[in-house]
């Protein structure tokens, strides 16, 4: 079975009417990202300068955070299929609060690693639960004539980016106090999320049946088309993760500090907030799923190539930020194409009743790729190679991933 991105009729560009549950889940994504991005963009500098970690260790810790989150999504997704989304979301919020508080007080490598693992596992619980239910509700919305499911998933992405836009700006202000205060404020955001969801999230969602956990993983591992999608999505996520590893390094080289980093994150989020829905509608009318993802991956590769081309010139100051801004713009445009389409593809590749498992597995496989790739990237950036080489290597990753995209029947 395949997905059609467009419904075959011209969709109204106006307001999208959603059910109360979909509105709650989309606002949930916004709140999650506000709390998360208050802290994450500034973690690399904290680990390197305050804790004193080497570059390869910073890359490893950042990759470990992504793997403990993305890599364990399959666990959270299976738990959501088995027990429903409410208990899984609430448990994840509790763990995220504890993880941020712990990170704020962590002073050694091992305590930082423990806090980062807890922060990641918290998201491994609540994110696949929310994402799988949004995907299921988007399919129902499409089947009842609301329009293409990718529009709902694009709106979900926009909500997340609004949070990603506000979070770094708030975090930059809080860093004027210290990193611990930033972590505690992030924890406070999740306290509010926990209280709101304990009150508003339904105990039972109509049409969502609980599924036995046994046997699903074996069939998933034999689904070659789904695994191919996972690998291509993992290459995208590894490239996107360079916002937190390669980009801070480039901004510091160009300006001597990371002050401009928050504004580059804001630029990325602003692009998604303003352009995601029009881009999704335009692409849905013209490109099939595979071509849309391929175009997104090639745009991301072009972003790395822009920095590689400018790097030998050694520009600094404002001029030195121009290639970094170009990288952010192209990476964000690629994200607009890749992320909603990948999520929209999963329901048609998943077994009946196991959408949570498959949604989680999409992130788990990509998380493993990021874990390995981030350590390699940290080493690559510290290896003293000619300045363009690390960025050219990074450009090759999403470009090569185009060949991994599953062929549609």
CATH class: Mainly Alpha
H/I helix tally: 16
CATH homology-level superfamily: MFS general substrate transporter like domains
Count of individual domains: 1
Give the SSE order as H and E letters: HHHHHHHHHHHHHHHH
**Helix/strand class:** mainly alpha
Mean pLDDT comes to 82
Q: What do we call the CATH topology? A: Growth Hormone, Chain: A
Helix-residue proportion:
over 70%
Cα radius of gyration in angstroms: 20 Å
Low-confidence stretches: 1-14
- Write down how many β-strands occur, each being a DSSP E stretch of 2 or more residues: 0
Assembly type = single chain
Q: N- to C-terminal separation?
A: 8 Å
The proportion of residues in beta strands is under 5%
Organism: Streptomyces bullii
Protein name: MFS transporter
Keywords: Cell membrane, Membrane, Transmembrane, Transmembrane helix, Transport
Main location: membrane
Description:
- It comes from Streptomyces bullii.
- The chain crosses the membrane at residues 21-43, 49-67, 88-106, 112-131, 152-177, 183-202, 226-247, 259-280, 292-310, 322-343, 355-376, 388-405.
- Residues 21-409 form the Major facilitator superfamily (MFS) profile domain.
- Keywords: Cell membrane, Membrane, Transmembrane, Transmembrane helix, Transport.
- The protein is an all-alpha fold and 409 residues long.
- It has a single domain (20-205, 216-404), classed as MFS general substrate transporter like domains (Growth Hormone, Chain: A).
- Helices cover 76% and strands 0% of the residues.
- The chain is built from 16 helices and no strands.
- It has helices spanning 20-37, 43-51, 55-71, 73-83, 85-105, 109-143, 149-174, 179-200, 216-221, 224-240, 246-255, 261-284, 289-310, 317-349, 355-381, 389-401.
- The longest helix has 35 residues, at 109-143.
- Mean pLDDT is 82; it is low at 1-14.
């Amino acid at each position: 079975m395949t997905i059609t991105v467009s419904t075959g009729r011209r969709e109204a560009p106006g307001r999208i009417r959603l059910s109360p549950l979909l509105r709650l889940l989309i606002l949930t994504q916004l709140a999650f990202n506000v709390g998360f991005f208050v802290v994450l963009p500034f973690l690399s500098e904290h680990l390197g300068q305050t804790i004193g970690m080497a570059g390869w260790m910073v890359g490893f810790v950042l990759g470990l955070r992504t793997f403990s989150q993305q890599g364990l999504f399959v666990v959270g997704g299976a738990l959501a299929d088995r027990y429903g989304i409410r208990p899984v979301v609430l448990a994840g919020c509790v763990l995220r609060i504890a993880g941020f508080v712990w990170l704020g007080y962590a002073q050694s490598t091992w305590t930082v690693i423990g806090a980062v693992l807890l922060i990641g596992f918290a998201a491994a619980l609540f994110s696949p639960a929310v994402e799988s239910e949004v995907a299921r509700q988007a399919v129902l919305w499409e089947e009842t004539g609301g329009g293409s499911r990718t529009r709902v998933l694009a709106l979900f992405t926009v909500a997340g980016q609004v949070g990603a836009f506000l979070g770094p700006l708030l975090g930059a202000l809080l860093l004027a106090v210290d990193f611990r205060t930033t972590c505690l404020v992030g924890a406070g955001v999740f306290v509010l999320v926990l209280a709101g969801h304990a009150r508003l999230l339904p105990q039972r969602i109509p049409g969502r049946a609980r599924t036995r956990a046994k046997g699903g993983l074996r069939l998933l591992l034999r689904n070659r088309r789904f695994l191919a999608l996972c690998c291509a999505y993992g290459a995208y996520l590894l490239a996107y993760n360079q916002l937190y590893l390669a980009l801070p390094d480039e901004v510091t080289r160009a300006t001597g500090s990371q002050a401009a980093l928050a504004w580059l994150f804001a630029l990325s989020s602003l692009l998604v907030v303003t352009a995601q829905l029009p881009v999704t509608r335009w692409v849905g009318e013209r490109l099939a799923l595979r071509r849309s993802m391929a175009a997104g991956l090639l745009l991301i590769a072009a972003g790395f190539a822009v920095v590689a081309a400018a790097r030998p010139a050694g520009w600094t100051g404002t001029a030195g930020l121009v290639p970094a801004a170009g990288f952010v713009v192209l990476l964000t445009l690629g994200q607009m194409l890749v992320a909603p389409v990948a999520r929209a593809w999963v329901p048609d590749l998943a077994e009946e009743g196991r959408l949570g498992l498959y949604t989680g597995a999409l992130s788990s496989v990509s998380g493993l790729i990021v874990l390995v790739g981030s350590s390699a990237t940290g080493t690559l950036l510290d290896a003293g190679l000619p300045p363009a080489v690390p960025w050219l290597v990074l450009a090759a990753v999403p470009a090569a991933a185009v060949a991994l995209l599953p062929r549609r029947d």
